[in-house]
Write a structure and sequence with these properties.
Blueprint: H1 2-9, E1 12-16, E2 21-25, H2 27-31, H3 44-55, H4 67-81, H5 96-111, H6 121-125, H7 134-153, E3 168-171, H8 190-200, E4 204-208, H9 217-223, H10 225-233, H11 238-241, E5 244-248, E6 253-257, E7 263-265, H12 290-310, E8 315-319, E9 323-328, H13 336-352, E10 359-363, E11 368-372, H14 375-386, E12 393-397, E13 415-417, H15 421-434, H16 445-459, H17 465-472, E14 477-478, E15 485-486
Parallel strand pairs: 3-4, 3-12, 4-5, 12-13
Antiparallel strand pairs: 1-2, 5-6, 6-7, 8-9, 9-11, 10-11, 14-15
Helix pairs in contact: 3-4, 3-5, 4-15, 5-7, 8-10, 8-15, 12-13
The chain binds inosinic acid (IMP) and magnesium ion (MG).
Inosinic acid binds at residues 172-175, 209-212, 249, 320, 323, 325, 364, 367, 369, 371, 405, 480-481.
């Protein structure tokens, strides 16, 4: 049943007639030719019903469903699809009835979740979709109360080895874990706590980011300062820390957390080295020809220079070992159109030049890059290195347009498309809730007490804690494009 449904959704069906295997496009592919691969069933109806129960979209009289709401419903369907019944082995083709019992309880808990989906900029600016009226808010609160019982009944402590959600969650960095060009500064954020809880429940976490500073681990640590401080503060165990990876330069530099809360390069060569053990994948960096790498970078540099000249951009070009970047001059902003034009030029040039190595040309919001390698390879290498299949991997990112760099991950695992770190936080909270993880009870008694005290102090204080944290780390500033350290002249 499930396989038939997946075949129907996926791009091609194999039709076995008497003499040959004939490949015909699915109905969905005919309607949407650019459709990707589905690795799981997508319980769209269930997700829509829950979302509608939470937000009452069908009760609206004037405003129809928006693009962002559809994105949220698809995201919910995707995370629901990855939830297995707690305390059971992975069963891919469960019957609809068996899934129903767990999903219903978990979904009710999700509907009752205090926070609503963070609103995106477009929605904020759109008068026609203003925040709900006061009476609607009250209605929601009542509904939450009536659902409290089912939330409480969900406070089971799942066996860590049998966490019913995804086994590997890959995260984009910029605009997914921290704002574009910023660092993960706050060690008091919910996002840090949810990542901690996922690690505690046996999940593998990997930041798969285009940002590449070779194996200079301190530079990635700087970008993750607040998160690593949170892990240290809570005394996360070595075996949990070892499930935290970062892939820098898309798929070029693999690092893992060690017991001292610092990143260590994962060995590339020799027995068990990540590069040698993934050479069965032809796209893996272990198979790259250095001459072709150089010629791609030369081509990209020339193309970026021409684009810069043609469009009179206030920008400069930087070249690294595995990437070329077009970055703004200090305090200048490169228009989106100029960045997109640059990306489409290079994509077109490399495609027509029949480049065989994987690459990614993308608009990063403030800059444009050509990286040798991409997130498809990054996620795939992690999957084979860790032995985790596509249907148990989830990639969360913000750039799924054809000029974005998360798009490449779509071909190797299910994805969730977010637009801000706040939305990532919400998705992780949803995953934990749907998996039945109590959001406080998993901390050790000491950590739990600390968590409560800190939350109370923050709530009852006029102090701007993010400013305090920013000042505390301000001595360590880095140009996120080049990786150069910069001195901070701001007087306190
Ligand atoms: P991501 O969103 O985490 O994949 O990070 C993308 C951002 O990383 C880009 O927009 C750049 O600002 C930054 N970056 C720093 N170094 C590199 C590089 O070598 N290649 C691509 N992006 C880089
Ligand atoms: Mg990003």
């Amino acid at each position: 049943m499930t396989n038939e449904l997946l075949n129907e959704m996926n791009a091609t069906n194999n039709v076995n007639n008497a003499n040959s295997m004939q490949i015909i496009p699915s109905r969905l592919q005919k309607l949407v030719p650019s459709i990707g691969i589905f690795y799981t069933r997508l319980p769209l109806r269930k997700a829509f019903m829950a979302y509608n129960q939470k937000y009452g979209i069908t009760k609206r009289q004037y405003i129809c469903i928006s693009f962002n709401e559809i994105r949220h419903i698809l995201n919910l369907a995707q995370i629901l699809a990855m939830m297995k019944e707690p305390k059971q082995e992975v069963v891919v083709d469960e019957t609809a009835e068996r899934q129903n019992t767990t999903d219903t309880r978990a979904l009710e808990a999700w509907v009752g979740m205090e926070e609503n989906t963070p609103r995106t900029e477009e929605e904020e600016g759109d008068d026609s979709s203003k925040a709900p009226q006061h009476h609607e808010k009250l209605e929601r609160r009542d509904r939450s109360d009536s659902l409290k019982e089912s939330i409480d009944s969900l406070s089971l402590l799942p066996d860590r080895a049998l966490f019913p959600g995804p086994k590997l969650i890959c995260f984009d960095g910029d605009q997914t874990l921290y704002s574009d060009g910023s660092n993960f500064e706050s060690s008091g954020s919910k996002l840090a706590k949810y990542l901690y809880l996922l690690l505690k429940h046996g999940c593998y976490i990997a930041v798969v980011t285009a940002a590449g500073y070779e194996y200079q681990t301190a530079k990635y640590e700087l970008r993750l300062t607040g998160l690593l401080a949170y892990f240290k503060d809570r005394g996360l165990d070595e075996k949990d820390l070892e499930r935290f990876y970062i892939f820098g330069g898309e798929c070029n530099y693999l690092m893992r957390l060690g017991s001292d809360y610092k990143l260590k390069p994962v060995r590339e060569d020799g027995p068990g080295g990540w590069m040698v053990s993934t050479t069965h994948n032809m796209e893996s960096p272990g198979n790259w020809d250095e001459e072709e790498v150089t010629s791609i970078l030369d081509m990209a540099e020339a193309c970026f220079q021409k684009s810069l000249d043609d469009q009179n951009m206030r920008a400069r070009i930087i070249r690294k070992k595995r990437s070329v970047g077009l970055i703004p001059q200090p305090v200048q902003k490169i228009p989106r159109e100029a960045l997109d034009e640059t990306v489409l030029r290079i994509q077109n040039e490399l495609e027509t030049d029949k480049v065989t190595l994987p690459f990614c040309a993308f608009n990063g919001g403030t800059d444009a890059w050509l990286d040798v390698g991409n997130k498809r390879v990054g996620v795939q290498v992690l999957q084979s290195y860790l032995g985790i299949p596509s249907e148990e991997t989830l990639h969360i990112g913000d750039q799924f347009l054809n000029t974005g760099n998360d798009y490449a991950a779509r071909s190797v695992c299910p994805c969730v498309w977010i637009t801000s770190p706040e939305e990532t936080t919400y998705i992780l909270k949803s995953i934990l809730r749907l998996a039945g993880v109590p959001l406080l009870a998993q901390l050790s008694p000491v950590a739990e007490e600390k968590e409560k005290t800190e939350t109370d102090v923050r709530r009852n204080s006029n102090v701007d804690f993010s400013e305090v944290e920013r000042r505390a780390t301000r001595a360590l500033k880095m140009d996120v494009y080049t990786g150069e350290y910069i001195s901070d002249n701001i007087s306190s």
